[in-house]
Amino acid sequence: xxxxxxxxxxxxxxxxxxxxxxxxxxxxxxxxxxxxxxxxxxxxxxxxxxxxxxxxxxxxxxxxxxxxxxxxxxxxxxxxxxxxxxxxxxxxxxxxxxxxxxxxxxxxxxxxxxxxxxxxxxxxxxxxxxxxxxxxxxxxxxxxxxxxxxxxxxxxxxxxxxxxxxxxxxxxxxxxxxxxxxxxxxxxxxxxxxxxxxxxxxxxxxxxxxxxxxxxxxxxxxxxxxxxxxxxxxxxxxxxxxxxxxxxxxxxxxxxxxxxxxxxxxxxxxxxxxxxxxxxxxxxxxxxxxxxxxxxxxxxxxxxxxxxxxxxxxxxxxxxxxxxxxxxxxxxxxxxxxxxxxxxxxxxxxxxxxxxxxxxxxxxxxxxxxxxxxxxxxxxxxxxxxxxxxxxxxxxxxxxxxxxxxxxxxxxxxxxxxxxxxxxxxxxxxxxxxxxxxxxxxxxxxxxxxxxxxxxxxxxxxxxxxxxxxxxxxxxxxxxxxxxxxxxxxxxxxxxxxxxxxxxxxxxxxxxxxxxxxxxxxxxxxxxxxxxxxxxxxxxxxxxxxxxxxxxxxxxxxxxxxxxxxxxxxxxxxxxxxxxxxxxxxxxxxxxxxxxxxxxxxxxxxxxxxxxxxxxxxxxxxxxxxxxxxxxxxxxxx
Length: 638
Fold this sequence. Notes:
- With 638 residues, the chain is an alpha+beta fold.
- It has 17 helices and 24 strands.
- The protein has an 8-stranded antiparallel beta barrel. A 7-stranded antiparallel beta sheet has the order 3-2-1-16-15-14-13, with helices on both faces. A 3-stranded mixed beta sheet has the order 6-4-10.
- Strand 15 and strand 16 form a beta hairpin.
- Helix 14 (534-560) packs parallel to helix 17 and helix 16 runs antiparallel to helix 17 (605-627).
- The protein is elongated, with a radius of gyration of 28 Å.
């Protein structure tokens, strides 16, 4: 129930938000003068320490630059709790995961300058295997890879190994994991780790050098990044890798090193001081002269694609974001044991790099960036906009309630269910002007600012503000509702297919397991009533065992759906996926046994009732498994 005072508050918030929302991106903003190192040190240290304490983060390294100078460079906490060893911003390396990607794109631009690559040509011209021609006349190009618009489905199972000895050549991994093309290239963004690794392989072939060595020779060494590498495990003289941790508080535990097969998309290890050098090179005229031309540097900073004019887009190197109304470019990174944030504000020349040796950091990164932006990047007029353009939202709609699935998802393997569960978005209307938005385990209130446009309510956490505004429109081609978050440019959201609504599948799962459970119970009861009939006893045993096998599949498969799937599908898991079809065969055999008993004039009411429940529940269950690519072994990657 919404009381009158709450509605009044919502109206006041809405009025404030309207002013905020339409302080447009083009509005002049106050560009700060030189940052005061002492003030930055005191302020940022407090923010980092508070964020680390709130989220039980063992260690962090932070650098802030402005123009050609390092304003702040500091290590916090422990690189290794057991030692214990502190974090040294010059010598402690962190795995920065997807912050690796800008270096891949830089290497592509370098080879374009040398005439070895054309980013608008079919990538099959550079490969020694074929990306399928799913959409004739619409080839995938390097530009599509660089802007995450290739139209690939997402693939992750088998992307890493537990040891260096198990790793395979990049070319073998790319062939083995080749994804399906599910959308026209250049149509929409769908973040793709595979696409980044594919681009790096093209660089490797064009440059005729292993990709890690190419980066060291062409980028790291010229920029003075002597403690940065994509080798696994990382080694540079005089540096050490921080131990990665996972968990919360008392449950904090070290994480084993993840050896990546698709390594170009996230295997980079670096220090805060090296990333400061990289930021200075990016933020100063001529800073990249040793590695990139001014034209290529501009391409890395300028927007090249966006799903909507109002939402964040992608450059040929970075992702756009907005903090306190100031446009920024950068990238985040997330890998087992580590989390990283890298953001640059081209207008002011300020950059911020934050690396944590924990993968459970909550909103720590967003909180620190937001605090820095509000203190040192004030908007000239009022609160700042969350939108990237003042162009009216075309096809705006208020039909936005329900569950939505991300464009970044899988359609052909057991990963299909993972994405709507982990990255799905829910919208529930609270009032005419308020909606509840659920995303990655958090729920926040958004307030209506215009038709189809909702913004985080006043006092929303930094993590909600970082999502930006929610924009809802009718798709021009299908008329179905699409959802965009203005702070996320790498994917969008759409309605699931009619047979893939999670709420419906949840209800059906309960009903199907209930039917199988009743079948199993009646099978047990039938065994006691069939002691003098071998055929009925056999029918009951088959019924009970088959139903139990199908029921047991659910908790067993849930136990396998963990981050460890990145290491591939085990033999034990493959065996578990045989349980439903084996169970179905047993239930069918039970029905055959019952029919034989009936033909022999034997009464089998209990058995028939059990079979009826098991067949009904099992049929629904098998259909659900088919929808999510979990029926048999067909949905398991090799």
